[in-house]
């Protein structure tokens, strides 16, 4: 009876792990691109319609703001396109966010990272990704070990009393 409940727990954990592989999609999105190395083009959608939101750009390497937060007006569909002057040779990797506050309460937020093709040769950037594949692999190994342990308990012969 105990091995059946452990098997169920392992199934639930495997299901939760499978949910972690599906990328989350927020209603708000923010994408940064560039045509020239002196400006960033920020594109947002899924934001509140006809509202003013704030766009913030931060250098990933130093953690410093590249420009002061830029007010951006969204259209009737909640989208915007905004060009911001940034020297991408000095700030080749940016973290960006869009937000709106109402009475001190955060109403909307979207986040994005951008690695510019304008970086100087040999410039090393800190790791900006996650270790998702490593963590998922570790989870799979632990689930397999649990399954082997459950299988091992079933193979033991029962002793007569």
Provide an overview of this structure.
The structure is a single chain. With 161 residues, this protein is of the alpha+beta class. The protein has a single domain (2-120, 130-155), classed as Immunoglobulin-like (Sandwich), CATH 2.60.40. The chain has helices at residues 2-21, 132-155; strands at residues 29-33, 39-45, 52-59, 70-73, 80-85, 93-102, 105-115. The strands form two sheets. Strands 4-3-6-7 form a four-stranded antiparallel beta sheet, with no helix packed on it. It has a three-stranded antiparallel beta sheet with strand order 1-2-5, with no helix packed on it. Strand 6 and strand 7 (105-115) form a beta hairpin. Helix 1 packs antiparallel against helix 2. The longest helix has 24 residues, at 132-155. The radius of gyration is 24 Å and the shape is elongated.
Sequence of strands across the biggest β-sheet: 4-3-6-7
The CATH superfamily appears as: Immunoglobulins
CATH architectural grouping: Sandwich
User: Total helix count?
Assistant: 2
Could you list the spans in which at least 5 consecutive residues all have pLDDT below 50? 23-27
Could you say how many structural domains there are in total? 1
Content of β-strand = 25-35%
Instruction: Write down the CATH topology.
Output: Immunoglobulin-like
| Helix proportion range | 25-40%
Molecular shape: elongated
Order of helices and strands: HEEEEEEEH
């Amino acid at each position: 009876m105990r091995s059946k409940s452990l098997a169920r727990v392992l199934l639930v954990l495997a299901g939760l792990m499978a949910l972690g592989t599906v990328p989350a999609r927020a209603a708000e999105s923010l994408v940064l691109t560039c045509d020239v190395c002196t400006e960033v083009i920020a594109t947002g959608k899924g934001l509140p319609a006809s509202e003013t939101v704030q766009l913030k750009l931060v250098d990933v390497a130093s953690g410093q703001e590249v420009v002061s937060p830029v007010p951006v007006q969204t259209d009737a569909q909640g989208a915007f396109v905004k060009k911001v002057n940034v020297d991408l040779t000095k700030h080749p990797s940016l973290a960006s966010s869009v937000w709106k506050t109402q009475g001190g309460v955060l109403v909307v937020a979207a986040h994005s990272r951008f690695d510019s093709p304008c970086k100087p040769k040999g410039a090393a950037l800190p790791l900006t990704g996650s270790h998702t594949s490593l963590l998922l692999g570790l989870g799979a190994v632990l689930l397999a070990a649990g399954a082997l342990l459950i299988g091992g308990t079933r193979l033991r012969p029962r002793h007569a009393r």
